[in-house]
Structures are given as C-alpha cells and as structure tokens.
Write a structure and sequence with these properties.
Length: 171
C-alpha cells in the first residue's frame, strides 16, 4: 500500500526526525560520560578547571588540597575591624591578613576556628594604647605584639608575618 504525504506533514516529519536524532546523541553522550566516570581511577585529577588555576584569587580558604606544593595563601578571615580608641570618639579601622600554607588542613581549620579570638586580641591591643600612640600607632611594634599574641593562642602551627591594610584613624 502506497502512502502519499501532503507537503505540510513532510516538514513536521523531518523536524521530528532531527529532534529524535538530537535526543539520541545526547543520551549517548550521557551514557558514555557515565561509563568513563566509573572506569576512571579514583585518584585521578580533574580533566579541566572552570574559574582559573588553583592558587588564584579565590584560593584563600586553604581547604583545597590540590594546590601546588610550596604555594602560599593569605588568610583574610579576620575582616575589617572598627576599634574604638581610648582617647574619646576616635575609631581605628584596620584589616589584618597573614600568609599560611594551604595544604595544612588542620592548621587551616584551627585558623578558621580562632577568628573570634584574633579579632578580640587585635581590638584589646589597639584599644589599650595610650591616647598619644593610638592616633599614630607604631605599625612594626603593633605587628610584633599582635603576632606574638596570635601565635600564643595557636597550637597546630605558627604565623610568620602580619599585614595591615586599611589602617586609618577616624575622629
């Protein structure tokens, strides 16, 4: 039996075949990717990275153990401090950061758990300065003393250097 198709049905028939072919190709890719994932060794690294290289702008959490050996991350978790000074209505604005090794997961977790202590130590130090030193504090002396206090509170590692940014006194 011969079937005759009208012209409008032929166009829809071709579109149906193209869509069916597209669905079959996508299903094949999905099956192939799944099989590849199951057959791949468990300790193999990622095939590609989205968002740039490891150790880039967003690697300051220290949780990524795939970072290159010898790489250094910067801990900025303390954030910006607003410290009321002893000499009246003046306020010091300060951000503290320091480098740490990103591969040491235990030390990274200790740093994250001590953020409140770090903030308290810095606030207590600067708010206890005499009035004449609080307006223009000696940065090297402050770094040395705060670093000593930070390291006294740490058990799993030591901080080697501190960096101050946004150090200003607002009256």
């Amino acid at each position: 039996m011969k079937r005759i198709l009208n012209p409008s049905y032929r166009g829809r028939h071709k579109a149906y075949r193209v869509m069916l072919l597209l669905v079959l190709v996508l299903a094949g890719l999905l099956v192939a990717g799944t099989l590849y994932a199951f057959l791949r060794p468990a300790d193999s690294g990622p095939l590609f990275r989205i968002g740039g290289p490891v150790g880039g702008e967003f690697a300051n959490t220290g949780i990524d153990n795939t970072a290159a050996e010898g790489a250094i991350s910067v801990f900025t978790g303390i954030g910006r401090l607003r410290i009321p000074l002893a000499d009246g209505p003046a306020t010091m604005v300060l951000s503290i950061a320091f480098p740490y090794p990103p591969g040491d997961r235990a030390f990274t977790e200790e740093l994250a758990s001590k953020v409140g202590d770090f903030r308290t130590i810095a606030i207590e130090y600067f708010s206890s300065l005499p009035a004449e030193k609080s307006v223009s504090p000696d940065e090297d002396t402050a770094k040395t003393e705060i670093l000593r206090r930070y390291n006294a509170s740490l058990r799993l590692g030591k901080i080697e250097a501190l960096y101050f940014s946004d150090l200003m006194v607002i009256e």
